Amino acid sequence: MAANSVPRVESTFRELIPPLRTEERAALEASILKEGCREPLVVWRETGVIVDGHNRYEICSEHGVTIETREMHFEDEAAAKAWMIDNQLGRRNLSEVDRIELHLAREDLRALRRPGRPKRSSLRSTKQTPHGVNIDEDSAQLASLNHHERSTDERVGKASGTSREKVRKHRRIKAQAPGLLDAIRDGKETYNGADRQVTRLLEKEAKEKRRLEAAHKVEQLAFDERLMLRHGDFTDALADLPDASVDLIVTDPPWSLEYLELWDRLGEVAFRLLKEGAFLIAYTGNEKVFDKHKRLEAAGLSEYCLIYSYQLKRPWLGKRQACMKPILALSKGTPREHEMFFDLVPTKGFEASAKEYHPWGQPLEESRYLVRKFSEPSELVVDPMAGSATTLIASVLEGRRALGCEIDKEHYLEAKRKIVELLPDLR
Prior knowledge:
CATH superfamily of the largest domain: Vaccinia Virus protein VP39
CATH architecture of the largest domain: 3-Layer(aba) Sandwich
Strand content: 15-25%
CATH topology of the largest domain: Rossmann fold
Distance between the termini: 71 Å
Largest sheet: 7 strands, mixed
Number of helices: 15
CATH class of the largest domain: Alpha Beta
Order of helices and strands: HHEEHEHHEEHHHHEHEHEHEEEEHEHEH
């Protein structure tokens, strides 16, 4: 070898070699240890860079096995890589992932040699289409790039025996979660499944970005600016509020039976905070409704009525499908005057956005209806278990003051984001 007496590995060349599966590498290692390295490595004569035999070289180096080499001449790096790609594509048992990868690498080499490929520009100007429409030049160049990529994906799809859409997904997965390509290669995942995982990952990242952007803005909100959200258990977080200072409590406690103890504490806190005649409105779920009701009454609250909300998504409880959500209404002492209302909340019963910020989120219009019927403008509405702050937002939209607390840190931060996004004028 002219340049080096010892073969060397160059990372950009090594990346062109499809990785061996665990069992394949184990079989190759066993063969080399038993019979030695039967085939010589192929190296680029002018540089000493290995162009074929990377896996054998790694195993032989690890175990001190003698290595033989065979030199080949290439005009330049692109020529050497093109030979490597053709050599790999000529082998059997390549996975679909590896075929796509190799053909994409071949396209990249062709692009380097092909003049006039569209380039992004930092300059902005306009030009006119054949139909006389002015368009931004950057947009035109981007459209050209997109067209180029679509054409490339189509060529790669045909060459690798797959589809343009699968190549597009391959690109996307490689850019966002390259580890998933190994799962596809090993048969543990499909392109469609991996693409859905990438979509969820991107949605999660976007959601986290919005949450972080919103978090610091809500910190500036003060109680006298109509809304306050506190982090902590409601028993402690609301301890500073004076007795009989709250006009309405609307809340949605956890429904499962393991949280029954919360209803005892909710009743005690509500009885202390509510003004005479004011109401506690609490979603209760369909299990142990009367047990929860009794726990609230045991704290001193008085039975008023049971309200229902229609469910479009109906859970099965054993062999019974729950079509309604019960909502308990209790008062502190003699109920005060309030607007007339329907005991079946006249809303659509489901909003697609209700679950965006919290898995147990309730429809905003439903909360607005309850706030509107059981309180007056400028009064104070409290939600001891605020979740995603639906009650608080509904109260502000209905012209009330709102105070809530949430014990879960993640849900507390999500509630902040929701407040900023739904009440931008509150800042």
